[in-house]
UniProtKB/TrEMBL annotation:
Superkingdom field: Bacteria
InterPro entries to which the protein is assigned, alphabetical: 6-hairpin_glycosidase_sf (IPR008928), 6hp_glycosidase-like_sf (IPR012341), Glycoside_hydrolase_63 (IPR004888), MGH1-like_GH (IPR054491)
The UniProt record lists the keyword Hydrolase: yes
UniProt keyword terms in alphabetical order: Glycosidase, Hydrolase
Domain Mannosylglycerate hydrolase MGH1-like glycoside hydrolase: 29-410
Protein name: Alpha-glucosidase
Protein family according to the UniProt entry: Belongs to the glycosyl hydrolase 63 family.
UniProt keyword Ion transport, yes or no: no
Listed GO MF terms: Glc3Man9GlcNAc2 oligosaccharide glucosidase activity
A GO BP annotation: protein N-linked glycosylation
Length: 425
């Protein structure tokens, strides 16, 4: 185990720790982000279990009455980020954004619970979180799958966590920009603009926010009212995996009703996932629900599908697909196929490698018996840190560190990977 790297990673977490939550990184992201917190808790759990539970509890303290857990909690005002609370207009005592993010908490809580050394504390805290996580999952299927297909749609690219992926380009072109109030971006003063989304994309992000706000953030209306409704295989895989992990956890805690409901969500989801398989590309792809068509975009969203229990033959195909990507990049797994014309190795989700996604893909592949590829991905994740530090994301060919530095969830993944790696036989 590389203790020096673990120590450095812990220092990054300490720097971004605000006591009861972490910020993704100082400056660029000065608030609490939803899936960042869930994944960062995995890092804390290796040396401070109480702090890990607190990270997740703080997030759920801001759950909306309808069950949604928002994507940003604006704990303390900071005008270094756009769009701030005044743009979201969600009218909450402690302001939050109005959209959500990948629901990875069910997975994280189960993992932290399973490994807990302090079993009594874990049981008490997991038991309290269980119904709240379940309420969030029910919220998804109720509001984001109104037709009961088994798969949920995101209504804003930011919900996917893969903000400017090539996957959204075609559908995003249908989102208007008229009526967007003039604004000043803040991200481009903290990070290189060439590593960030474009101004044109930002106008559309904000148009959607203004549109949802004009509907009073009423989640029963937003899905049908959004011109952007996308079924993302990665997002759905995270939800399905969290439902299935919550089912196991609920079973262990004797919460049989939550267990049965969660199991049913997961089974229906897994069956429906196959409709997102694309034979030509040999991976899963997004389905544009507003246009009623598959999106032929070879992105990492379709590989992240392996995070849930897809059939073993599909997991094997995903591993083979990653092996093909490895012919054109040095570090796995690029967020977009480097041979595709839209690929951009420095620009956010259009090419760079992200350690959190690596971790989830690798975890799913291990569960599916694809240990070789999983190991390759873990090794690449650590090599990136050794070459380039704890960045937000990395160029998959040159390892150039991009976006923000001293990044919380990147550091948390390093702690997690190094603490759980198998020692060589
Ligand atoms: C960016 C990422 C998103 C992440 C957030 C905070 O918006 O695309 O996935 O949650 O930054 O790190």
């Amino acid at each position: 185990m590389r203790q020096d790297l673990i120590d450095q990673a812990r220092a990054v977490l300490a720097r971004n720790d605000r006591g009861h939550y972490t910020v993704p990184t100082h400056g660029l992201y000065p608030f609490q982000w939803n899936w960042d917190s869930a994944l960062s808790a995995l890092g804390f759990a290796h040396y401070d279990e109480a702090r890990a539970w607190t990270e997740i509890e703080t997030l759920f303290d801001h759950q909306w009455e309808d069950g949604k857990v928002p994507h940003i909690i604006f704990h303390e005002m900071d005008d270094g980020y756009f769009p701030g609370p005044d743009v979201w207009g969600t009218a909450r005592r402690i302001p939050t954004s109005g959209i959500t993010q990948p629901p990875v908490t069910g997975f994280a809580v189960r993992r932290i619970f399973d490994r807990a050394r302090d079993k009594a504390m874990a049981e008490r805290r997991a038991r309290a979180l269980l119904p709240r996580i379940h309420a969030w999952h029910k919220w998804f299927y109720r509001n984001r799958d109104p037709q009961g297909t088994g798969l949920v749609a995101i209504i804003h690219p930011w919900e996917s966590g893969r903000d400017n992926s090539v996957d959204w380009d075609e559908a995003f072109a249908r989102v208007p920009t008229e009526g967007v109030a003039p604004f000043q971006r803040r991200d481009t003063s903290h990070a290189n603009p060439a590593h960030r989304p474009t101004d044109e994309q930002y106008k559309r992000y904000i148009w959607l926010v203004q549109h949802f706000r004009s509907l009073g953030w009423d989640n029963t209306r937003l899905h049908d009212a959004s011109p952007f409704r996308m079924v993302d295989p990665g997002f759905n895989a995270i939800l399905i995996r969290s439902c299935s992990d919550l089912a196991d956890l609920a079973q262990q805690l004797g919460e049989t009703e939550i267990a049965a409901d969660s199991r049913a969500f997961a089974e229906r989801g897994i069956a429906a996932m196959d409709s997102l398989w694309h034979d030509g590309l040999g991976q899963y792809v997004c389905f544009d629900r507003a246009a009623g068509k598959q999106i032929d975009s070879p992105s990492i969203g379709g590989l992240l599908a392996a995070f849930c229990a897809i059939p073993h033959a599909r997991a094997q195909a995903v591993a083979a697909r990653i092996a093909t990507l490895a012919e054109s990049a040095r570090f796995m797994v690029p967020s977009h196929d480097p041979t595709a014309p839209e690929y951009d190795g420095l620009r956010y989700w259009r090419g760079p490698v992200w350690l959190i996604v690596n971790y989830m893909i690798s975890d799913g592949l291990k569960e599916a018996g694809q240990a070789g590829m999983a190991q390759r991905i873990d090794t690449d994740s650590i090599r990136l840190i050794e070459e380039s530090g704890f960045a937000e994301y990395y160029d998959p060919i040159t390892a150039e560190p991009c976006g923000g530095g001293s990044f919380t969830w990147t550091a948390a993944m390093v702690i997690e990977i190094l603490n759980t790696e198998k020692s060589p036989a």
